[in-house]
Design a protein that fits this description.
three-stranded antiparallel beta sheet, 13 strands, 240 residues, FAD/NAD(P)-binding domain, five-stranded antiparallel beta sheet
């Protein structure tokens, strides 16, 4: 099996470089050949197989090709209705569109997130799952800002990737080693607040730590960096 990636590393939009390298290593140890900075010129059908022609002139032969080219939010109906569009259907903190009688939720929804001070659009199932009830409540008059901490997961063979919050280049990273069970990375904003956390390793070790980090992010806590890095100190104890 081969993976051809146009970017300089795997999962550029989804995870920080440190996690990207862990995922690459896991896949390569499992027999996957990975090429980054690789451009596919075209794919030709030949004798029941696929010829993958690369920009550097090489030709690879495959029995099955899976192509991932990204996603575009479906905003055609909203645009036709005259709603504001900007990388998705533009909504306010309550998920109301530019027409106060129309709300939007899910992957197509671009909303301002108070934790990050920026507008985001999240293509993850839990966001869609939670925005639905939030929209219903606000349509009934609750007028509550949507402030759920973003959360994402992916199983990689016998290990798991989990991310709470948005990992950004400008935030300060703090690493915590769990030994053979995995690694965690925490990201702090300039004011010391925990802004995101990600981990890769065994589910039993990663899931609970990311859950506690998610709570800290939501509470806008600024934990001690040495405590975050020390695996002998419980993440849960930092919630106080």
């Amino acid at each position: 099996m081969s993976v051809l990636e146009a970017g300089t590393r795997l999962l550029t939009r989804a995870v920080p470089a440190c996690i990207s390298e862990l995922i690459r290593g896991k896949n390569e140890r499992s027999g996957v050949r990975i090429e980054t900075s690789t451009i596919v010129e075209r794919i030709d059908a030949k004798a029941g197989r696929s010829e993958i022609v690369l920009a550097d002139g090489r030709v690879l032969i495959a029995d099955l090709v899976v192509v991932g080219i990204g996603a575009v939010p479906n905003t055609e109906l909203a645009g036709a209705a005259g709603l504001a569009i900007d990388n998705g259907i533009v909504v306010d903190e309550t998920l109301a569109t530019s027409d106060p009688d129309i709300f939007a939720a899910g992957d197509c929804c671009s909303f301002p997130h108070r934790l990050y001070g920026e507008r985001v659009r999240l293509e993850v199932w839990r966001n869609a799952q939670r925005q639905g009830p939030a929209v219903a409540g606000n349509m009934l008059g609750a007028t509550q800002p949507y402030e759920d901490v973003p959360w994402f997961w992916s199983d990689q063979y016998d290990e798991t990737l989990q991310i709470a919050g948005l990992c950004r280049e400008q935030d300060v990273p703090v690493a915590r080693s769990l030994g053979t069970k995995g690694r965690l990375f925490f990201y702090l904003a300039a004011d010391g607040r925990l802004i995101s956390a990600c981990g890769f390793g065994s589910l039993s070790a990663i899931a609970k730590e990311i859950r506690f980090a998610e709570i800290m992010i939501g509470r806008r806590l600024a934990p001690d960096t040495e405590a975050l890095a020390d695996p002998t100190i419980s993440i849960r104890s930092l919630l106080i």
